[in-house]
Specification:
Elements: H1 2-48, H2 50-65, H3 87-100, H4 104-136, H5 144-171, H6 173-178, H7 181-184, H8 212-250, H9 254-289, H10 311-329, H11 358-405, H12 425-465, H13 482-505, H14 512-526, H15 528-542
Helix pairs in contact: 1-10, 1-11, 1-12, 1-13, 1-14, 3-4, 4-5, 4-8, 8-9, 10-11, 11-12, 12-15
Length: 570
């Protein structure tokens, strides 16, 4: 294992030059694009919404300076607050409206609304209970224990429907009058099939049995329920993605794998439950309000869109954010949500309702904050990679100095007459040869990396001189000469064309680990020329080519009495 780890670490050392060149090449390309977009975006918003930009900068400074765990009231500037209301908030508003009426008429109207809201909530609760029973017990078959559990759940459902009928008699009297005796008092056997008579599913399809107020109130509840179920779905999908990554990276063995699969199965069941609930509420909302622009926001949910948030989805979401900014800069108020690449982004992860006014402004401010963060990231990446390039050169040179000091090693260890080879001239020559070889390798690394990094480091210094820490671009001619600006732009253009062709030619590998191994292999192959030179150097030690070193005469170490070539049997 030590040999394997040592070989792997040495391969990483040999590949560090190619790795840093690749990182710097990407950082300069991405940094140029992100800073240009952010600069233009900032200038456009400064003209239209200067006060909001100032407020966003203040909130970002507060957010970055404070401890988020100790400041729960500080709003994240990179997140758009939910504009809709949850089902609990809708219910709370209904109760507050009932308590805030002052005159008798207003009190009566508020009381009627509260009774109707209570009736609809009970009906929706019965509907949810039906869906839960149907998902958990899809048939009457099973063990005796399962049959007993299903019977108990059906009894509770019948009681829930009976409570609903009690309130329905006063809130929806026309519907209650049209109910038969069996429908008013269902049994456990008929609890799953009896008609509830809520506005989205009136008795026999007769819409005259329900009032417009009831239909409007249920539509309000259904919309809130759709939002709640989408939030629940996204939460479960995030959890599913975390569990999957943990299982791939950490879980080994049958016991741990079984436990991991059990946890994933439970989360998958919750995903299906949330998706089915969303579809049920959406179908009911469509019956209540019909077709409209709301379908652009609450879309039809497909099973293929219920997938966890992986690395490719995150990358696609970043591209969607960039396209949204470009659409704004082009003078459009909406952005595409389906994407234009082969890997389609599910709409549930990136909602953009195409609204205007204050909501658009708030979302654009959030997008501006994200754009600023991306631009800052790449500016910082260029700075860090440039510093790392200098560090690897300094480290190699310092290691060469250390190996030079080890060349003349005067201390010996007396292990007895049988191991006298540890202090003879051949042993001394071996130490000197090995130390000289290591010093040469380190200096060869430093020399080669210095030559390889010189152009990229020059571009990095130019890039940092014309970009601020906030990710904004400044006029290059104010800092650089005209020739330097022209050279910088020409290099950036060629780099962007080269990287664009490479992206189109290469198919993205879904397995990130395999992709990392292939990348390391390519980096290792790039340094094969240096390795051949080192092999030739090693061959020179055996034929006495380093005879100029004092005390080295090309002699081989003495044999150890044959013990070194004999393997002990066990």
């Amino acid at each position: 294992m030590d040999d394997m780890f040592g070989a792997w670490n040495w391969m990483k050392t040999c590949c560090i030059g190619a790795s840093l060149r690749s990182r710097m090449d990407r950082a300069l390309d991405e940094g140029g694009m992100q800073t240009d977009v952010h600069t233009e975006f900032t200038e456009a918003l400064q003209v239209q919404h200067p006060d909001k930009i100032a407020d966003a900068q203040e909130r970002i400074s507060t957010w970055e300076a404070c401890d988020q765990l100790k400041a729960p009231n500080t709003r994240c500037p990179y997140y758009t607050p939910k504009l809709g209301l949850s089902i609990a908030q809708v219910n709370l508003q209904t109760e507050e409206a009932a308590g805030s009426a002052t005159c008798e008429v207003a009190r009566a109207l508020a009381k009627e609304d509260a009774v109707l809201a209570d009736c609809l909530l009970r009906g929706l609760r019965a509907e949810d209970e039906r869906a839960r029973i149907a998902a958990k017990h899809d048939g009457e078959s099973g063990t005796d224990k399962q049959a007993t559990t299903r019977t108990t759940m059906l009894k509770n459902l019948a009681l829930t429907i009976a409570d609903f009928r009690t309130v329905q008699e006063h809130a929806m009297s026309a519907t209650y009058t049209a109910l038969s005796t069996n429908e008013r008092d269902p049994t456990p056997k008929t609890a799953m099939t009896v008609a509830l008579g809520i506005p989205s599913d009136p008795l026999d399809g007769d819409r005259t049995l329900v009032s417009d107020a009831a239909r409007a109130m249920e539509a309000k509840y259904r919309w809130a329920l759709m939002q709640d179920e989408l939030d629940r779905l996204l939460h479960q999908l995030r959890l599913k993605g975390c569990l999957y990554k943990h299982r791939v990276a950490q879980v080994t063995g049958q016991k741990a794998s079984t436990r991991s699969h059990t946890a994933q199965a439970a989360v998958s069941a919750n995903v299906k439950k949330a998706a089915d609930a969303y579809r049920r509420h959406r179908a009911a909302y469509e019956v209540l309000v019909g077709d409209g622009s709301w379908k652009d926001v609450m879309r039809d949910l497909k099973d293929s869109e219920c997938r966890p948030l992986g690395d490719r989805l995150i990358e696609q979401m970043e591209k969607m954010a960039e396209r949204k900014i470009k659409k704004f800069l082009e003078g459009k108020s909406t952005a595409d949500t389906s994407g234009e690449t082969a890997y389609k982004l599910p709409w549930i992860w990136y909602s953009w309702g195409g609204k205007t006014g204050t909501e658009i402004t708030e979302q654009l401010i959030v997008e501006w904050a994200k754009s600023r963060a991306r631009a800052q990231h790449w500016v910082q990446e260029v700075r860090l990679v440039e510093a790392e390039m200098q560090r690897v050169i300094d480290y190699s040179e310092s290691m060469a100095v250390i190996w030079d000091a080890r060349r003349d090693y005067n201390e010996t260890v007396d292990l007895g007459p049988d191991q006298s080879w540890v202090c003879d001239d051949a042993w001394t020559d071996g130490i000197r040869a090995y130390a000289s070889k290591q010093a040469y390798i380190r200096r060869a690394h430093a020399s080669r990396w210095t030559q390889e990094f010189v152009q990229l480091r020059m571009e990095a210094r130019r890039f940092l001189s014309v970009h601020t820490d906030d990710g904004l671009s400044i006029e290059p001619l104010t800092v650089l000469s005209a020739d330097e600006v022209e050279d910088m732009r020409q290099r950036a253009k060629l780099r962007r064309e080269r990287r664009s062709k490479a992206k189109r030619a290469n198919v993205v590998d879904a397995d990130s680990d395999a992709g990392a191994d292939e990348a390391n292999l390519e980096l290792f192959e790039e340094d094969m020329a240096l390795q051949k030179e080192l092999d030739a150097l090693a061959a020179g030690f055996t034929d006495g080519s380093f005879g100029s070193n004092k005390g080295f005469h090309g002699r081989k170490p003495k044999a150890r009495g044959g013990g070194a070539t004999t393997r002990r049997k066990r």
